[in-house]
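Allow me, if you will, to draw on your knowledge of protein folds for a short while. The matter concerns a single protein, recorded as an amino acid sequence and a row of backbone structure tokens. Kindly check, if you would, that the fold set down in the tokens agrees with what the sequence suggests. You will find the record immediately after this paragraph.
***
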Amino acid sequence: MRKRVLLVYPHYVTGWLAQPRLAIPLSVLCVATPVSRAGYEVKIIDQRTEPDWRSILINELSHEPICVGISTMTGPQLKYALEISSLVKKYGHSPVVWGGIHPSLLPEQTLQNENIDFVVQGEGENTFLELVQALEGQKPLSSVKGIWYRENGEIRKTGLPTFVDLNQQPPIAYDLIDLKKYSRVLFGLNHHNFFTSRGCPRQCTFCYNTVINRKKWRAMDPEIAVNRIKDFVKKYKVQGLIINESNFFLDLDRARSILKGFIKENLNIAISKVNIDFSTLFEIQPDDLILLEKAGCRRIPVAIESGSHKIRTLLNKPIDIQLLLEVNRLLNNTKIVPNYLFMMGFPTETRDDLSESIALAFKLIAENQRAGIYFNIYTPYPGTELFNTAVKHGLKIPQSIEEWIPFHYRHLSQNGPWLTAEMRKIVRMLDFCSFFIGQRPLLHPTEKTSAIATLIGRLYAPIARLRVRKLWYHFPIEVTAARFFRIYGKQY
């Protein structure tokens, strides 16, 4: 009988969504693939797609898997990861292994929870397979680089592993999940997630990438990336791609080769998300925009973060606003939708700083009617430079996993001690109203959006724009109503 390994992906948010989306659990699939190829039987339970996940979990535990792996991020997902770990200990005897962003950032604190036996720190493809082999008795635990564990009452670590070579990794075993459950409709087409690189060399002070990927960027060779995508598209009849990586365009020559490969292979797919770094954006030439359109690119997210020079300096984001506006006007001559991403709620940020962001946002959409504007709320991640700044401004460092559960951006917007009372109110208002400030709020078919939400969004948009322009946060009855009916702001 083949030895079994169980992997679980926890919930991270529940409730009604105007724009339903369910991303492929790539963090779990990436570690499952080499384990499966090594001859183990791998079962994946995605708590988001399995209403009866408890019964499935308990049944799987009766088969005594070698271990149960759980991937989790900082915030509400920890609540579900802890519940799963507790059930594993109650109904089974398998060791519990945590991986993902949160345990990688805080491995020692994670192991203080009695229901967690091992932490895989950083990338798990090689480490998790070696850990499975060690638990099976094929090698000593001390030889597995990248793990933390308890032994004789003491926490031990084996040191960081070397980074994974993406060119040498096998194609992801998507057959381990039901891919149809993860289709996302963009521009009227079904899309799936894919990646061709990892990490980022930038030194943004708020980003956990600086800790997890140690400011390194690694990428598949263009030929390998094109072949992987071609096989993925043909095997699963994929209509569109969401390229889930920090900066597809960091090496422009590589990016151009991949896009030309899409055209040469006649893939005829839509690329509805492909991130571009703020520095690389300014190197884009008109010919690159033509290439992007021919290759099927529909949308490019661009992380600006703030219209305030003071805040961009705090974040280490040296953006030339005039160059940004020039590129925005260039994009207006294409069919490509630029999505400009702002953040708010930073330590030391003032109303004037936010006013500069608002002014820039409205200028961008005035000069490019296809542009989308999104305001996200800053979340402090441990190990980052800005986390230490938040601590200096009143953030109390959580001392257990349970205390990290409320680290949800909407919860922090209400309770972040580094924000003044007025800034909390402004941030809450902007979080809600920014959905409606683009030229076409809650647009269909860019996203598959509830028809009712789209209608309400279009009717409400003028009020939202007025609130945002004036930073008028008083009497937010619409926000209160949306929260009451649980259609906005549910945390966990």
